[in-house]
Design goal:
The complex is a heterodimer. Chain A has one helix and six strands; from the N terminus they run αββββββ. By secondary structure, chain A is of the alpha+beta class. In chain A, a hairpin with a 4-residue loop joins strand 1 and strand 2. Chain B is of the alpha+beta class. In chain B, strand 4 and strand 5 form a beta hairpin. In chain B, helix 6 runs parallel beside helix 8, helix 10 packs parallel to helix 11 and helix 12 runs parallel beside helix 13. The longest helix of chain B is centred in the middle third of the chain and has 19 residues. Chain B is elongated, with a radius of gyration of 42 Å. The chains are: A alpha+beta, B alpha+beta. At the A-B interface, strand 1 of A face strand 34 of B.
């Protein structure tokens, strides 16, 4: 499911003034999707994760599109062959930074993640490679 | 001018040398062909030439003339020095002197060694002088009826007095006979003690063949040594040197060049040029009548005067006039003339003593040795090289089958086989310097204990072979000093302290056990045994068949573990001599696993095993079959402490199945106070090394079924693992378990306890080998850099149980030990501080002592794993807490209690008052009805325990309402009995129909009991539980609502 999100202020923070002055509202820019552009962003790359206690910390390489709006993260306890029909973990709020901490997970359960990038025109990229990761509890305390 | 020589025949029967006619009369006779005239000079002439001491001459023929004289001695109890002054040129002592005074050497002999030694007549004469004393007291022999061992039974201990006892005297050797007797040898062979040139010597440079060398003390002391040896059943054999004589010998000096030069052609005893290349000194001409006479006199003297039991003849191959100079090979070839010379000599010896040993250091062609053996002589069988190769772990040239006479086609067991004599490099030296090792270095023969164990291995293939055997002094203690230290024949350090060394003593005890075994059955000595030796390969076997004993000796002489067939000659029970174990052999082709250096002596009769573990076969590799599961890997309780034993460097990622963070997670503890968890990061921190361990949880099992090399042990048989300060995850890299108390003792004795985790912590009595895959927690609060782990071959469990005054309360669930708490009785009013148990939230099933809340401040220390009580109190009452899953049976036992007779130990349930007897290591089973059950551990006599129970027991029969109520589907009923009573509990429905019998007239102990009614098969409604207890009846109403 694809949704439209408006994210002006966060984009400012994320991409800084250079982005704001050079391409704010503009549709130009070689190779990059822009407003009114139907071209989807590139699929995010290098999705990686750190297993924690009931949580997984995910990181990836930030996309470089000028009109990038954010990311959708999809999670399943089985292999994700397609995100069709899946709700993103982040719900309606696009993930702005190139990292995400997924909490309240069940320890010992293996989770599968895929990530997409979304631009301001609501174009969603194809999915990243899949990350397979399991949160584990911390070990027991020392004996005393 | 000299008086004219009186030609006069000697008195009838006068023999050469000194003859005491009576206490005041002496006759001297000197065989001196080609000499003109001889004076006797001595203390009685004030060393002047005196015509009264001019000797008569009897010229038998041109090359056989004797000078002789008879004269009186003023004081028969005094020693008189004397010499022959020959042809006005040569001052020489009598060659048959039994005592001499030496102008150069005597001054270095202390009065401790030789008390009251007369000084040399300095300034009055020169060269060695002889001593005569007509009134000399005869030695009073105590043990005249000594029956010496048969040849085939001999175990000979060769010794050099100088290097055996620091006092280098016979007296101290005599004091050491107990040591040799304990070892079990039945003969000692003294390296030459006949007067030899200089003081410090091996003795193969004889000068006076009938005199006892004074550097070893008075001749009387030698007689007492022999007498004492005989009283212990030990024969004494003399190493006799008759291939040659040394320059100062009168036999040389009477006819030689200069003072000490070569014999002249006129010399009737000695060849001017030796006849063989190995000669030293001046070579005897054994075909000359003079030499034959001398040889026979010498041999007879030592047999008759000293009661020696026989001789070992040095360099007997040199007893020939067959000239082989320049051709050593020819020297060794069959020499009929030599055989004749030796047979003649032996006949003479046996004419004096028909069972005297005649042992030859011969090393000639087998045909010749065979003939000598057939004649009744024995020969030395030098198997040093092959035993050395085998001992060092090299297969090449390690075939020592020549130790057995039949393998040389001899009819008789006349081969005195040996691995070492005085002449060989010590095998221990070879082991320590040139021994083999396996590729990992975990088995290394150059390490002392392994080197010692290799000697045990070789000796098991030595003492057990029928026929006489010999060992060189201190071989039984692993003496390893280089034979060339201080020169080949130079003095060697004497190391009696080796006997105090635990590991060397084990070699001594192994020799002792083997000699005892050998003496226990004639299969190990007799010529009638049928012996097969398969000793060419890396694994070696000897089988011995005797009409009533079968023996199979199997050994792995390699440096890696292997399997081999001992080749049992029959099926049935075989006994392993050293372990005492019985091996039931169904198939004679049975294969057994053998660690490097391992050996076994199997027999079909049981012989008493050594009382101590003398052998230590440390495997060089450990075959692992580890499998550890982690349940759902979903909680801290699903972590396990894992490890690998041996010498491993395995990245965790290679060991565990699946991928990190996907299939498993791992942590290391860095020991710090905070931030001590190091999460798996793929670094070398997460290599599984010897002694370390990790917290791991995994969705897949941890499995490891490879073979790893064992760790190296230090000289004290300990492994060492690194530690950091604070908490450590450690593992036992050995392949054997060891009691933690042993580990503690090896590291100063005050170690904190060892903790095991299996979903909960328990104090571990044993440091289980990591071959289980397990690691442990340990708090290093003493700043240790390493932990020493003693290698104990025997089961550590026995040791734990044998520990005095400590009781271990052990809980078990489904046969698995879940906790252990210790109660130690100490002889002190102020026992040590109690040991806090792990926090209960991690505990599974456990039984812990309740802490005294007055003493313990925090709730964290509310339970104790180890408490101490004063052993002088007779009664003890301790609160304990059982934590367990309700409704599941828990077994409890008290280990180590059986050594307190008359005193009982029991657990009392404080709520029900029920008693569980833990005496005699009873294992009791409790099915708790809640997670935490309070109990009392009571110790005392029966009266005390009953009093404690009565305080807790119900005062009258009562029924508690069921709980829960209403219920679905089951409910629990509780009833109390003040004494043992018969009980029936039935359940009826509202129609009065009986729907269930919960207890059918069964006897129940005093206390509180529970019973459960399961209504899952019943309809909703009212039910009545009817109790009939003794002659009372109770009814409880219960409501089932579905």
């Amino acid at each position: 499911m694809k949704r439209t999100f408006l994210i002006p202020s966060i984009v400012l923070i994320l991409f800084g003034f250079l982005v704001l002055t050079s391409c704010g509202g503009s549709s130009t820019g070689p190779g990059n999707g822009g407003n009114g552009n139907n071209e989807a962003p590139a699929a995010p790359s290098n999705l990686d994760g750190t297993s924690g206690d009931q949580e997984v910390v995910l990181t990836w390489d930030a996309n470089s599109e000028d009109d990038l709006a954010g990311y959708h993260l999809y999670r399943s306890t089985s292999n994700i062959s397609s995100i069709s029909g899946m709700d993103p973990v982040n719900g309606s709020n696009l993930i702005q930074n190139a990292n995400f901490t997924d909490t309240d997970l069940e320890n010992g359960t293996t989770y599968y993640y895929r990530l997409t990038a979304v631009d301001e025109n609501n174009n969603e990229s194809s999915t990243s490679s899949q990350l397979e990761i399991t949160p584990f509890s911390d070990p027991p305390d020392r004996p005393s | 001018m000299n008086p004219e020589v009186t030609q006069q025949a000697r008195p009838q029967g006068l023999q050469d040398g000194i003859t005491y006619v009576d206490d005041n009369t002496v006759r001297l006779s000197l065989f001196a062909p080609n000499k003109e005239f001889v004076y006797v000079i001595g203390d009685f002439t004030n060393w002047e030439i005196d015509p009264n001491y001019f000797m008569n001459k009897e010229e038998v023929n041109a090359d056989s003339s004797y000078f002789w004289i008879e004269f009186d001695i003023p004081d028969p109890n005094k020693e008189y020095g004397f010499q022959y002054f020959v042809d006005g040129e040569i001052r020489v002592a009598d060659p048959y002197s039994e005592k001499i005074l030496d102008p150069f050497n005597d001054q270095y002999i202390s009065s401790e060694t030789y008390p009251n030694l007369n000084p040399y007549p300095e300034g009055k004469t020169d060269k060695i002088v002889g001593v005569l004393q007509p009134g000399k007291q005869d030695y009073n022999w105590q043990h005249n009826n000594y029956d010496r061992p048969d040849k085939e039974n001999l175990v000979v201990y060769e010794l050099l007095v100088r290097d055996f006892v620091a006092n280098h005297d016979f007296k101290t050797v005599t004091d050491s006979l107990d040591y040799l007797q304990q070892l079990g040898v039945n003969a000692i062979e003294l390296m030459p003690i006949m007067e030899f040139d200089a003081n410090s010597s091996w003795g193969y440079n004889p000068t006076f063949h009938l005199a006892t060398d004074k550097y070893y003390g008075p001749a009387e002391d030698l007689k007492r040594l022999i007498d004492e040896a005989h009283s212990r059943g030990m024969a004494v054999i003399l190493d006799m040197v008759l291939n040659h004589a040394w320059g100062p010998s009168p036999l040389a000096r009477l006819w030689n060049d200069g003072d000490y030069g070569k014999p002249t052609a006129q010399n009737p005893y000695l060849n001017r040029e030796p006849k063989h290349d190995f000669n030293v000194g001046y070579d005897f001409n054994h075909e000359s009548q003079a030499t034959k006479y001398f040889v026979d006199r010498v041999n007879r003297f030592w047999l008759e005067e000293f009661n020696f039991d026989g001789f070992r003849f040095d360099l007997s191959k040199g007893f020939t006039q067959n000239n082989t100079l320049g051709n050593v090979g020819a020297w060794g070839q069959y020499d009929a003339s030599r055989v004749q010379i030796l047979k003649r000599m032996a006949d003479k010896i046996w004419a004096t003593d028909d069972s005297a040993y005649v042992i030859l250091e011969h090393f000639a062609e087998n045909q010749e040795e065979q003939e000598l053996s057939n004649y009744g002589m024995m020969t030395w069988g030098n198997m040093h090289h092959s035993y050395k190769q085998a001992s060092m772990g090299y297969q090449s040239e390690s075939n020592f089958s020549g130790i057995y006479h039949e393998n040389r086609s001899w009819n008789n067991a006349h081969l005195v086989g040996y691995m070492e004599s005085h002449d060989e490099q010590r095998i221990m030296y070879e082991n320590l310097n040139f021994g083999n090792s396996n590729s990992s270095g975990s088995y290394d023969i150059t390490e002392l204990n392994t080197a010692l164990n290799r000697i045990k291995l070789s000796s098991a293939f030595f003492f057990t072979v029928p026929g006489p055997k010999m060992l060189w002094q201190f071989g039984e203690l692993g003496y390893e000093v280089d034979i060339n230290q201080s020169g080949r024949t130079g003095e060697k350090p004497i190391r009696w302290e080796y006997y105090q060394d635990e590991n060397r003593k084990k070699l001594y005890d192994t020799y002792k056990a083997l000699i005892r075994l050998r003496n226990s059955h004639e299969a190990f000595t007799s010529e009638t045994s049928n012996v097969t030796m398969d000793v060419n390969g890396t694994t070696k076997r000897i089988t011995i068949s005797h009409p009533n004993l079968e023996v199979s000796i199997a050994g792995n002489f390699g440096v890696t573990d292997t399997e081999m067939q001992p080749q049992f000659t029959q099926s049935g029970d075989w006994y392993d001599f050293f372990s005492g174990d019985t091996l039931s052999v169904n198939n004679t082709d049975t294969t057994i696993a053998m660690s490097a250096g391992e050996f076994h002596i199997y027999t079909t009769q049981k012989f008493q095993a050594p009382t101590e573990d003398l052998l230590r076969f440390v495997p060089t590799q450990i075959n692992l079959d580890i499998s550890q599961s982690f349940d759902a890997a979903s909680s801290p309780q699903d972590y396990r402490l894992i490890a690998l034993p041996g010498q491993t460097v395995e990245p965790l990622v290679d060991v565990l199945n699946g991928d990190p963070s996907v299939d498993w997670q791992a942590y290391w503890d860095n020991g710090q106070q905070e931030n001590y968890w190091v999460k798996y990061d793929g670094s070398s921190t997460f290599n599984m090394n010897s002694g370390n361990g990790f917290w791991v949880t995994s969705k897949e099992d941890f499995t490891y079924d490879q073979t790893v090399p064992t760790v190296e042990l230090n000289e004290n048989n300990q492994a060492s693992i690194p530690l950091h300060d604070g908490w450590n995850i450690i593992s036992n890299p050995l392949h054997t378990d060891v009691a933690w108390s042993q580990v503690s003792a090896a590291n100063g004795g005050n170690l904190q306890p060892l903790w095991r985790f299996d979903g909960s912590y328990s104090e571990a009595a044993d440091f289980i080998s990591a071959r289980s895959g397990e690691a442990f927690y340990f708090l290093n609060d003493q700043g240790l850099n390493e932990l020493l782990i003693p290698y104990e071959e025997t089961s550590s469990k026995n040791k734990t149980e044998a520990k005095q005054n400590e009781v271990q309360l052990i809980t078990q669930k489904d046969g698995e030990k879940t906790s252990s708490s210790s109660l130690t009785f100490v002889d002190s009013e102020e026992p040590p501080a109690d040991v806090v148990a792990p926090p209960s939230r991690f505990e599974g099933t456990s039984l812990r002592f309740a802490a005294d809340n007055n003493k313990q401040k925090s709730s964290r220390t509310s339970s104790l794993a180890h408490v101490f009580r004063n052993q002088n109190k007779e009664e003890h009452r301790l609160e304990v807490i059982l934590l367990a899953t309700p409704k599941e049976p828990v077994s409890i036992s008290a280990k180590g209690w059986d050594n307190n007779p008359g005193i009982q130990m029991a657990l009392l349930n404080t709520e029900s008052g029920r008693k569980y007897d833990l005496s005699n290591e009873n294992e009791i089973t409790i099915i708790p009805d809640k997670e935490k059950t309070s109990m009392l551990l009571v110790i005392g006599d029966t009266r005390y325990i009953n009093e404690q129970q009565e305080e807790l027991l119900p005062k009258e029969i009562s029924i508690n309402p069921n709980y829960p109520n209403p219920f679905n589907p089951s409910t629990t009923l509780r009833f109390s009995l003040p004494e043992q009573t018969e009980v029936q509990v039935q359940v009826f429905n509202v129609l009065g129909q009986r729907v269930s019998t919960l207890i059918n007239n069964e006897t129940r102990q005093a206390g509180v009991h529970t019973v459960t009614f399961d209504g899952s098969q019943r309809a909703s409604g009212l039910y009545f539980a009817v109790f009939e207890i003794g002659n009372q009846r109770f009814i409880q109403k219960m409501t089932l609502i579905k």
